[in-house]
Amino acid sequence: xxxxKLFVANRGEIAARIxxxxxxxxxxxxxxxTPSDTLSPHVSLATESVELSLRAGDSEALPYLDIPGLVSxxxxxxxxxxxxxxxxxxxNAAFARAVRDAGITFxxxxxxxxxxxxxxxxxxxxxxxxxxxxxxxxxPDGLVQDLDVxxxxxxxxxxxxxxxxxxxxxxxxxxxCNDERxxxxxxxxxxxxxxVLFHNDKIILERYYTNARHIEVQQxxxxxxxxxxxxGERECSLQRRHQxxxxxxxxxxxxxxxGMDLCEAAVRLCRSIKYxxxxxxxxxxxxxxxxxxxxxxxxRIQVEHSVTEVxxxxxxxxxxxxxxGVEERSGSFLxxxxxxxxxxxxxxxxxxxxxxARVYAxxxxxxxxxxxxxxxxxxxxxxxxxxxxxxxxxxxxxTVVTPFFDPLIAKVIVNAPTRAEALARLCRALEGMKILGxxxxxxxxxxxxxxxxxxxxxATTRFLSSFSYTPPALTILSPGLSSAxxxxxxxxxxxxxxxxSGAMDDRAHAAANVLAGNPPEKEALEVISxxxxxxxxxxxxxxxxxxxxxxxxxxxxxxxxxxxxxxVRVVIPPGSVLELSEEARGSSGGLRVYVAVxxxxxxxxxxxxxxxxxxxxxxYQGRNLTTGDQLRISDNNNSLALSSFxxxxxxxxxxxQNWVLxxxxxxxxxxxYVTPAGNNKxxxxxxxxxxxxxxxxxxxAPSDDxxxxxxxxxxxxxxxxxxxxSNILDNAYARGTLNINGDTPVILGCEGPDMGGxxxxxxxxxxxxxxxxxxxxxCTIRLQRISWASAKNLLDERDRWLGAVQEYMQGSSPRAAxxxxxxxxxxxxxxxxxxxxxVTVEGHPAAVFRQAGDSAILVEYGTMKLDFSVRxxxxxxxxxxxxxxxxxxxxxxxxxRSTMCYFDPAVxxxxxxxxxLVDAQHKVYSSIMSSMSFPSRRITFPIVLDDRWSRDALxxxxxxxxxxxxxxxxxxxxxxxxxxxxTKEEALSKLTGSDWLVFGVxxxxxxxxxxxxxxxxxSLIDPRCxxxxxxxxxxxxxxxxxxxxxxGLVAAIYPVESPGxxxxxxxxxxxxxxxxxxxNFTDGNPWFLRPxxxxxxxxxxxxxxxxxxxxxxxGRYEFKIEPCTFDLSEYEFFIAGIAxxxxxxxxxxxxxxxxxxxxxxPVTSPLSASVWRIKCKPGDEVKTAxxxxxxxxxxxxxxxxxxxxxNVGRKVRGVCVYEGSAVGAGETLVLLE
Length: 1233
Known about the structure:
Number of helices: 26
Distance between the termini: 86 Å
Largest sheet: 9 strands, antiparallel
Structural class: alpha+beta
Number of strands: 67
Protein name: Urea carboxylase
Shape: globular
Strand content: 25-35%
Helix content: 10-25%
C-alpha cells in the first residue's frame, strides 16, 4: 500500500469505527474534535488529534461543517485521504470538491454524482433513465414550485401525498398531507423549512403509500468504471420521525418475494452512472403489490452499515472505501477482476439473519425528544462479547451526551441462523445492558422487539405511529424548593472527604419506604414543598407511594383530590399527578418530606455504594431534580388492588417549633478552649436556625438579640492553627458535630466536610440526627448534653419505633407504639468531661483520647504544632488497629497531629473502642520509633506557577467579595512579604524547589494536605522550605480545580471547582476523577493520593497544561510514580543537623508575619457580617471599654464592636475595613497600638 494518512472528518461512533480499520491497515490517522468531544474515544484512538476552532456562542456542530477549516487542517497535517463518515459533510459536494482541489483523495464517489444524487429530483431522473420506477408524481422530477400546480398534481396522483425537500435527508422536512386543505396549509411552510434546513427550497410531491416498506440495497460498491456489486438488501421499515430504529438483513418481506429484482435494479443504476466507492440505494416497497419504487441514493457509508457487515462474515466496508481511495490516489482503480468486485464474493446465506437496534439518548414518552446528560453507568455486559453480538459505540461511564449532535449512543447488532433467534438474541442483549442516566430508548426497543407484528415481520413504515409504549416511570412536573434522591445510610464509611449524604431525616425516610412496601434503606425522594413552589409528579403507570415527614400543614393530592396529610400510603392510578401542597403551617416545625415508590428507582446507579445525591455525583445526574426529569420506577400495576391509608397517629413523630437536640460533648469543649462559665452559658442558651442553613450545615445564631458574645473563649488565638481562638490545626470531624466557625456555631450536615481547622464543642447524638432534616429557618434549638450510654439508649429506642411501624404495616398490632421521646434523658455531671483518657510515657508525646459524639473518638498527640514524627506515630497507631480488623470500627481520619477513629455504636461500645485504641497506643510506645519507616510513592505533577486561572479567581474575589486585604491583590506577593522573602521567584523556589509529603486526605473529595520536604532515599521534611500564610476571610466563592494553595503551614490541591480560602500560587492536575478514568485510577476509587505520598512538581507552560488537563480528563494521562520510603530515623537526624539554620529562618519568617499580619493589636469581628459604620480613625484614643469602634450589620441586626477594658488608653493605629465591606468571623477590623 502506498504511504497514506487518513483524515477523519467526523466524530462519535463512526469516527472511532473508521480509525480502528485504518490502524488495522497500518494507516496513521488524524481526528478532529470540539470541546465537548475532548474525552471521546476517537480523539484517543487517532494518531493525531486537532481541536476545532469554536467561536463563543456558536453550536459545537458548526466546526464539523466548516469546509475551509477542515480542509486546512487536513493539508497542514499532511493527510492524503479524507473519510467523511456519515452525516455532517459526508454528502456535501462542495466539501468533496474542496478536498480534491487541495490535492487530497476524498473517499467517496465523484463530486458530480454526490451533487446529482443529493438532489432528489435529479436522482429520480437518473433512476428512470436506468429503467427503475420512481414513486408516482406529477412530473418525472417530482418538483412542484407552485401551490396551484401542487394541488392539481395531488389530485391526479391521489391523496395522501408526501412533500419532501429535494436537498433533504435524515427524514427532516417531510410533510404528509391527507387532503387539499392540509396541502394548502403546509405548502409554503414546507418550502421555507427546506430552505432553512438545506439552503434549497425545492419541494418534491409524491404519492404517499400508507402501507409500505422501506427496503434498501444495503451496500453497493463500485470502482467508478462501471463495475458494481451489491451486498444484499436490508429492511428499515421501523422508523420514528422518518428515521430508522431497527434494521435487519435480509428483509422478512422480500423472503416471500423476488428480492433479487430490487438488488439488480440498484446495480443497474450504479453502473449507469459509473458509481465509485460505497453507497446505498433506497426503495419504497408497496406492501400490497410488492411493487418497488426508487426513493434516493446515499453516496456515503450509512449508520446501519454494521448490519451489512455482520450478515457477511469478514466484511469491512470501510476497508473497501480505503482500498478504492488508495487506487484512486495512485491514478488507478480497483480491477474488475478484484475479488472485491466479484458478486460471488458476497454470497447470500439462507442460514444468517442480522438485526441492528439503534440506541439513542432520547425519551420515547416525549415523542423521542433528545435527552442529553451524563451517562452515569454504561455496561454492555463485558467483553469479550458472544460471537453473535457486536456493539458499535462511542460512550462509556461518565460520557456527557451534549445537545449539539445526533443522540445516537450505540448500535447493537446480532446475527443468528434464523430471524426468530436473531430477534430473541437482540432482545436479550438489550435487556442485559445498562446505560443509565438520562432516558434512552433501550426499554422501548426491547418492548418493540416483543411486539407480535414485529416478531411476525408485519411492521411497515407507519407501524411506530400506532405502537403503544408507556414505560413504568414518573416525570417531575415541579420539584418544589428542592427534590433529590437519597438513601440510607448514604456513604458514611468512605471518609477521605466524601460526604456521607443520604437522607437528612432517616426516620421519615425509613417510614416512607415501609409505607410503600420497601426496605427502610431503599432510595426515595427527599423534597421540600412550600406554598408557591409545590412538588408535583406525574406517574405514567400505577404506583404505590409512601409519604412521610414535613410539617402538619402538608396535604397530599392525587389529581387535585386530597387523599390525606403526610405519613400516608397512596395508590396512584396510571397517568395521575401527585401533588404535595402546603396548607397553613401554624406553629409546628418540619421541613423535608420523603416520597418513596415501591421498588425504588432501579435505573439510578450506585456510586461509591450509594444512590444518594451529593456534590456533583450520585442520584440523578449528580444534582437536584428539575422540571422534566424522568425516573424509571418498578412495574406496580398490582398495587391497584391495595388501598390508601394513614399511619397511626401514635407512631407519627412530633415536629415542634422549639427543639431539643441531644448532644454528646467533645472533643474541644474543655477549659483550654472555652471557659467553664462559657461552657455552661453555651448549653443553657437558646439558638435560632439561620436561613443560610442547608444539607451542608445548620447555621445557628443566639435567639436573644442582646446576647452578642455567645462564645466565651479561654484563649486569645489558635496558635499555629490560626489567629482566631476557634482555629486549631486541622483534625477530622465527627458526623453531626457542632463546629465553631469564628463565633458562629454550625452543625455539620450530610454534605459537610469531614475535617477542618475549627473546634468542635459537641456532636448531635446519632439517634437525633433526623431532627436536622426537619429544622426550618426560625426554629429554635436548645442543646442538651447526654452520656454515651444515654445516646445508645436513644438509638435503641429509634430501632424499636421503626419496628413498630413495620409491625403496623404488616397488620399486626404493635406491642405499644413507642414515643420518640419515651426514654428519659438528663444531664449527668460525670459525663460532661469529653477527655476519655490521657496516656503519657517519658520521652514520647502524650496521647489524649477525646470523645467526639457517640460514634467517634479523637486521638491527639503532643502540642498543637506540626511535627512529622508525630504524624509518623499516628500512622503506626492506625496500622496496629487496622491489623486487628475489629468489628464495628469503620476507619480513621488522620490529620496533622491527630486521628479520628469512627465506629458504629450499634455494633461496638465506646468503652470497647477506647480499650482497643489505648492498647494500640501502648504498643506504639513500646516500639522503637527511630527505626520506623513506611512505604511511599513519589509522584511527579506538572505545575503552572503564578498561573492565570488563580489570578482570575482573585480578580473575581476582589470584584464580588472584598478588594482590600493583606493578601490582595496578589496571594503570591503576600506570601513573599509574610515570610520575610525578597521576590516572587524566591518564594516559588521554596514552594517548588523541594518536594512535598502528603500527611492527610480529606475535607472534600480526596483533597490532599501536604507540607514541603526534601527527599533523598527517604522523606526529609525540611522546615526551611515551609511558607506560612493566613486563610482568606471570607473565603473565595470560586477556586479552579487543580489550584494549589497554602494556609498556615499546610498546602492543598483543590480537587474540584469550589469555594476556598487558601492562598493560591499555582495550578496542577486535579486529584479527583469522578469516573476513575485512567491507569492511575485502576482501583475504581475517584481519589488519587494517600497519606505519605511524596509529590514532586515540574513547572510547565500554561498552553502545555491545558493539553495535559484534557488528557487527564480523558483518562489518557499517566503520572510518573516511583516507589520509595519514609524513614523516621533519617528525618530526625536531618532535623538535628539543621536546627540552628531552622531557627534563623523561622525568626525571619516571624518578622514577616508580624509585619504583614499583626501590625498592632487586632480587634476582630465576632461573626460574619458587613461593615455598616466605622466609628474611629487612626490616632483616636480608647477612653472607655465601651467605646464603639465599628458597627456591623448581620441579618438586619446592628452589632457594636467595642474596644474592651484591656485596650483602654491605646490609640487606633489603622482601620482594616471600609463601610459596606464583608467580613468573616475572626477577621481584623481595627489595629490598636
